[in-house]
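The pair is quoted verbatim as follows:
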Amino acid sequence: MKAYRAILVGNGTMGKRHRARFEACGAKFIAVADNQEEFNEITDKLTCGTAGELPADFAVIASPASTHYTYAKFFLERKIPVLVEKPLAISGEEAQELVDLAAKNDTLLFVAQSECFNPIFLNFRKHFLAELNARLGAGDKQYDAGDKQLGAGDMFVAGDKLPAGNVRLEFRREHKYSERCRDVDVSLDLLVHDLGLFFTLFRYEDVDISFKTSAESRDRARMYLKVARGPYKGVTADFYVNRDSDVDVRTISVSYGRQGGSPGSDYTVSLARYLDNGEIAHIPDSLENEHRFFLKLLDGACGDWGKRIARIAADCVKIASRQ
């Protein structure tokens, strides 16, 4: 692998994790900033052309969420690829601006929503979409949210199969209180994770928000989405997030309802593994998969998927930041 040179902005818990994994892949961090003064030193070098080893091949942004937009914009304007921790920004307008800027400058923008690379979720996604298509009577015509839009002739014939309106997903994410990520409310902290998973299954353009509340507190929120258009019209999803809970939970539940008196095949998948004491065990494959994919994108592979991931991240912010 090419010996990439990188800049790290934000040397906290996630910053250290990103740095360690990229260094294990051979990357060299030539500058690290953990506050505005240190970042200003980097900007001076990049702006004045006295960078020495700079500019870098990519930048990692793991600073507080409220700073992501400013730092990501700085690097994208200089056509330096960026890996930024979730959320991409704290408003939909800022998130979309970054996506548009990356496209304009033909520069990689990657949002680190590592749950999308969780091997448990990837396995769930594969089997859920196959089962959903089969239950909708899709036959051999498999539809995926990442595929091109279906043409007028690509109609699904449901026949006596289960209608999409009977399919319900429930996303639940809870953990105990932490001092991390307190500069944003729980929607931009936790909800974006599950929205990211949801939008790898269904298209943003097909979905309506039926209900959202974060009025309980900054630490708890609920949301209800409905697929209102497209071949999966009628599928619904409930979301619940809590970052001041007594338990640690990360689950996706699937309910197919009933038809003609026959029970649906309901089930729940845990996205985490647990230790004997009930604490969540780290799943290293998630971050490792995420970093491997980012490096592939940096090498020029999978460009369309890279752009799709950035769009999904921006769409998540658009929904999570709504009041």
Observations:
- Residues 303-320 form the longest helix (18 residues).
